[in-house]
Design goal:
Length: 333
């Protein structure tokens, strides 16, 4: 590992001069600074993270707050986390992942230390108890998700309401008149998780506008629950021909359950989903993609702009992209 003394020796100056030249803490002649910077580049020297923090009053660390609550589909959450970490590294920042459901107290404990420069929060609720603290912090924050009252906050996410609408509109264009939403686990709705609630709003609004008969069915994330929901749908909506799935964990088990009940996809039943592209591609499901890479990257970019003192939009809504695949077809007569 290259040390500051190695840079000093190459540049022909003292270690303290190297420190001052790289940190800007004391005036150094332009010629000396250029010599030090050239030596640092040639040797591949990077200041220790602790030294950078002392010099800049920053830790170069972002907190990613992802409480792993019941009903959360961890593989999808980790896609967002990886995109945040990757984008942060491009800006020379590390990421501290916080997964405990500590609420306001946990956030305050982190924010009151020099551990992190800024925060990104996920699993946002419509009436999120963390909002008053976020508005009072002296550290920038970005929410991946939109609470009901988002004024004064910086939020980014897929437009989940529009995603729900888009799935229904696609089915309606194919002639389907009776549709159902197989949604997230019940506990996700109970705590008012924003993205899940907005999918329901969009699904219901689009069905009502189009005069479609519709129903919403939360579903536990297990194959057994998928089978029970499939049986209930056929019992309660015998004319059902279109299904929207917003629950990655049960997408494949649900299709298997319909097949066991004698329904062919898409011959008897058209299925759309809101899920990661790779899952939809593997199952050949018509879907609205979850843009985890774009959301994570843009969340970090918003934070970097705020850390630099720049102005950013309060709301960034990504428009849904529906890709047709083999799971949807015109309703048979």
């Amino acid at each position: 590992m290259v040390k500051i003394t190695d840079v000093a020796r190459r540049a022909g100056v003292s270690p303290s001069t190297v420190s001052y030249a790289l940190s800007g803490k004391r005036p150094i002649s332009a010629e000396t600074r250029q010599r030090v910077e050239a030596a640092a580049r040639e040797l591949g020297y990077r200041p220790h993270a602790g030294a950078r923090a002392l010099a800049s009053s920053r830790s170069n660390v972002l907190a990613l707050v992802v409480p792993l609550r019941a009903g959360i589909h961890v593989p999808v959450v980790m896609q967002f986390a990886v995109s945040v970490v990757t984008a942060a590294r491009r800006h020379d920042h590390d990421v501290l992942l916080l997964t405990q459901e500590e609420g306001e107290d946990g956030l305050r404990r982190v924010a009151d230390t020099a551990l992190v420069d800024a925060l990104i929060l996920m699993d946002v609720q419509l009436h999120d108890p963390r909002l008053p603290l976020l508005r009072s912090l002296d550290r920038p924050s970005v929410m991946i998700g939109f609470p009901k009252e988002a004024a004064g906050l910086t939020c980014i996410d897929l437009d989940f309401r529009r995603a729900g609408e888009r799935c229904v509109e696609h089915l309606a264009q194919l002639g389907h008149r009776v549709v159902a939403l197989v949604g997230s686990p019940p506990e996700v709705y109970v705590r008012g998780t924003a993205f899940a609630q907005r999918v329901v709003q969009g699904f219901t609004a689009a069905a009502d506008r189009g005069g479609l008969a519709s129903a919403v069915h939360p579903c536990e994330a297990t194959p057994a629950a998928a089978r029970r929901v499939a049986e209930r749908l056929l019992r309660e909506q015998p004319a059902l021909t279109g299904v929207v799935v917003h629950n990655e964990a049960v997408l494949e088990p649900l299709i298997d359950a319909f097949a066991q009940l004698g329904l062919r996809v898409p011959g008897d039943l058209s299925v759309t989903a809101i899920c990661p592209d790779e899952l939809a591609e593997s199952l050949r499901i018509t879907s609205v993609a979850l843009p985890s890479a774009e959301v994570g990257t843009r969340a970090v970019e918003l934070l970097m702009e705020k850390l630099g003192g720049g102005a950013v939009p309060e709301a960034t809504l990504l428009q849904p992209r529906l890709t047709g695949r083999a799971s949807t077809a015109p309703r048979s007569a």
